């Protein structure tokens, strides 16, 4: 994987040894980002899900959907977004996962992506659309450095494969009102027969 970091406004959150993790605002303009958000809000195949927590079934606090890049049902807006992301990150993305944070109550707990679900040494690229939300990125080992990163609409966060070993990331709930946000995550998944994306 090669991340194309020639842009001057790229912010480096983690170095190449433990990451890399980089952030770049306005990969797409606010106008385009808003149009893409509106399209995905309507066209996304959104689902709610549940999980076991503390021995009881609870709702996951966000909606989600997934597409294979080769899926004939892939919305055109995601095809357009993929073209843009590939201009910034040199990776053979084949999976697109979306999370819809409806308001300040929706969140995702600190976690790292499961490495067995990713192709080794390939990155994750996260395009943010809609309202700005804070992502907290924390190193797993001492010093447990923590970064609170404001993910603006149209921005691109890129996490190297190695970053999943060394950092957790999450979107906390907020006490104050927040507008809706869609995150679009581009990944390289292992090719498997009958894979459900």
UniProtKB/TrEMBL annotation:
InterPro entries for the chain: AlkB-like, AlkB-like_sf, ALKBH3, Oxoglu/Fe-dep_dioxygenase_dom
Tree of life domain: Bacteria
Keywords: Dioxygenase, Oxidoreductase
UniProt keyword Hydrolase, yes or no: no
Residues of the Fe2OG dioxygenase domain: 92-190
PROSITE patterns: FE2OG_OXY (PS51471)
GO molecular function, one term: dioxygenase activity
Name by which UniProt lists this protein: Alpha-ketoglutarate-dependent dioxygenase AlkB
Organism: Dyella monticola
């Amino acid at each position: 994987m090669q991340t194309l970091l020639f842009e001057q406004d790229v912010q480096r959150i983690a170095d190449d040894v433990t990451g890399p993790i980089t952030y770049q605002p306005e990969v797409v303009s606010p106008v385009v980002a808003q149009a893409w958000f509106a399209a995905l809000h309507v066209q996304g195949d959104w689902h709610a899900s549940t999980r076991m927590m503390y021995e009881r079934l609870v709702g996951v606090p966000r909606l989600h959907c997934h597409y294979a890049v080769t899926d004939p049902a892939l919305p055109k807006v995601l095809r357009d977004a993929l073209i843009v992301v590939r201009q910034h990150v040199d990776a053979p993305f084949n999976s697109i996962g979306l999370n819809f944070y409806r308001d300040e109550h929706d969140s995702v707990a600190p976690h790292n992506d499961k490495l067995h679900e990713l192709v080794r040494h390939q990155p994750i690229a996260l395009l943010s659309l809609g309202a700005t939300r804070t992502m907290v990125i924390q190193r797993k080992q001492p010093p447990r450095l923590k970064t609170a990163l404001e993910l603006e609409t149209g921005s691109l966060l890129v996490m190297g494969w190695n970053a999943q070993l060394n950092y957790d990331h999450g979107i906390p709930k907020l006490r104050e009102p927040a507008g809706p946000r869609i995150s679009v995550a581009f990944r390289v998944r292992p090719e498997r027969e009958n894979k459900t994306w």
